[in-house]
Specification:
- By secondary structure, this protein is mostly helical.
- It starts with a helix and ends with a helix.
- Helix 4 (about 50-80) crosses helix 12.
- The protein contains 13 helices and no strands.
């Protein structure tokens, strides 16, 4: 546990040691506020809630999560620092977990900085704050799933641009799998359980349920299991690359 905390602190401090982290946060907040209050027709709906914000949030994660995760292992492999990291008295699993947690906490901090949105809707009306809490909780879990997947894919390459493309493409597939237009391709010829399985893999399907204020245990278990599986595969890939 001590090794995880040590690497976690180093990784998290690295995010804020360069201006890129602050630029990332500013861009994220700017885009999320624009989508929540303008693209989401917040004022014309005449309803004080954060529905529009949570509707667009998965699409922001589709870009920003791969942007955060692309450096986790691709940069380590390119600069050769992964060899130095692996010579330290830490296991691969500890390194993978610590780097993931640092990225997850950084994205959580960025998400927490949207609290003025919550203050605004409470000032303008009387929103159901339980629903808002559910939306933020679901967003945090979904962010972890995005980062777990993108971190795993980042370990496959030394090129950060390739890591970003792989992460964005993989995230897009897991987002779209639950949409009607995707499921309609399989309906009619594929067995029902196959269609249900594809739908159950969708990040949006599980996120939307939690974002409505209903903390569905199945969705929580799905995101938690997805994260654990992604970190396990990440560890396997790193060990394979190290052995080769």
């Amino acid at each position: 546990m001590g090794n995880v905390l040590t690497i976690f602190r180093r990784e998290l401090s690295t995010y804020f040691s360069t201006p890129l982290a602050y630029v990332f946060i500013v861009i994220f907040l700017g885009l999320s506020s624009s989508m929540a209050f303008f693209a989401g027709a917040f004022f014309s709906r005449n309803q004080a809630d954060l529905t529009s914000f949570f509707t667009f949030l998965p699409w922001l994660f589709l870009i920003f999560a791969p942007a955060i995760a692309m450096r986790l292992w691709a940069e380590e492999r390119k600069t050769g620092t992964i060899e130095m990291l692996m010579t330290l008295p830490v296991t691969t699993g500890e390194a993978v977990t610590a780097k993931f947690l640092a990225a997850w906490i950084f994205l959580l901090i960025t998400l927490a900085l949207t609290f003025p949105f919550w203050v605004t809707v409470n000032y303008l009306g009387n929103p159901d704050n339980a629903v808002v809490f559910g939306g933020y909780f679901g967003s945090w879990l979904m962010a972890g799933a995005f980062l777990g997947l993108c971190s795993c894919l980042s370990a496959l390459t030394k090129n950060q641009v390739v890591a970003f493309i792989l992460g964005a493409a993989g995230s897009f597939l897991f987002m779209m799998s639950g949409l009607t237009m995707v499921l309609s391709v399989f309906q009619g010829w594929a067995p029902t359980f196959v269609v249900d399985l594809i739908s159950s893999l969708s990040f949006i399907t599980h996120f939307n349920g939690i974002a409505k204020g209903v903390i569905d245990l199945r969705s929580v278990i799905y995101f938690a299991s997805f994260i654990v599986l992604a970190l396990y595969l990440n560890t396997v890939i790193i060990n394979f690359k190290k052995a080769s």
